[in-house]
Amino acid sequence: MSEGLAIKLNDCTTKGYVIAPAGYGKTHLIALAVRTSVGRQLILTHTFAGVNSIKTKMTALGVPVSKYQVDTIASWSLRLCLAYPKTSGWETENPTSKQWNKLYGSCSGLLEKRFIRNIVASTYDGVYVDEYQDCSDSQHLLVCALAEFLPCRILGDPMQAIFDFGEGKLVDWPSSVYPTFDCLGQLDTPWRWVKAGMPELGDWLKEVRNKIEQGQQIDLLTGPPPCVVRVYSKPEYLLSKQYSSLCDLLGHKGSVIALHGGDQQSKNKTHQLARTMAGRFSSIEEVEGKDLHIFLKKLGAAKTAQAGFLLAVVFAKKCFTGVDKTLTAGTKKGEVAKQTKVTKYPMILHAANGYLSNPTSSQLKSFFLALKANPETSIYRRDLLYRFLNVLKMHIEVKEETLSETANTYQREMRHKGRPLIHQKLIGTTLLVKGLEYDHAVILDADVLDAKHLYVAMTRGSKSLTIIGMGRYLPAKKV
Fold it and tell me: How many whole angstroms separate alpha carbon 395 and alpha carbon 300?
């Protein structure tokens, strides 16, 4: 069906949409459609990880670069507005989170100008918008402005509409999409699980999706294939069940993602559980890296080397277990301490003394690397630690910047390149892993997830799914 649907997308001359469930080959479909086209297509998505994913698929399918431009909605809109500041009324090069909606409004107004339409239409022959369920109302209006003069095809999955990027209310498909866009089709083959050699899991998840869409519950005791494991737990034993289930998966080959929901309390739970697992599972950070930026801001404001070092120790405890066991009494107080016969870890002592005597990024990096190499410490927030080490490395090379300025530069580069997650056993939230694929998925507290978060969590693992919770039926009925 993908080949035929790709042709249908390419032949669409007005506004059309495709429903693309998780793991059904949406990116593949976009690449096939663009390969079929004659002119150049503008492909818009929400994240730079999404941009990289689409480009990778284009290359894999041999789509000539001349046939497409891939960008985020945010970057494309900003660049267009800045190119015509007098007409758009926009001059801010780095919008804050609260300014983006205003930017999209400015861009929509700009696209009403005939000369702008002529410029855009001479550059592109059509538009594709990926992950449309993540569009805000203001982004939807911008897409509708493009659709006034270019063929516009949108692809998404309303069942995965769990994240709004802080840019306003998510677009409502029944009121804003279905009445004005033509239905071009729906992807119907769960390719993620077919390719993983687990078609029975894909078929079951297909049934799960249908039931959730209809407002029904899933019975975990009847119907799931053997690769779906239900772990029953009473509330008081939930944490121990989570721990033992993750321990059981340590020996599994391939990647494992353990998932909480997307609220702030759940985000904190991911770090707590990773710490309990002594780093054998590592927790994923938010893209914004708030903990890192808060620490660097405080470090930059520290009046003395001692104050800075004590802040660094607190931050180290957010990355490692066992930090206190490695430090001498004097080091814990932020004092230059002498090595004695009972000093257990001289390397850490010397690294700490080095920073206290000369508080530079190079000395701070040496201290954290000494902790990393220590047998009594375990990294449980690898994502956070490696971002910090990369910022230090950059700051050593570009000394005229403050650490916070270097961190902002690193943040911008990371948004383009994607986060470097090498560890195979991870703990995260549904918001952080939506769109990503792992071999095995574990839902840590299934009873608290609503229908959409549950569906996102269930569809992350290509080979197996473990569901930990109290109830037989999901989504759980809210009391």
Answer: 13
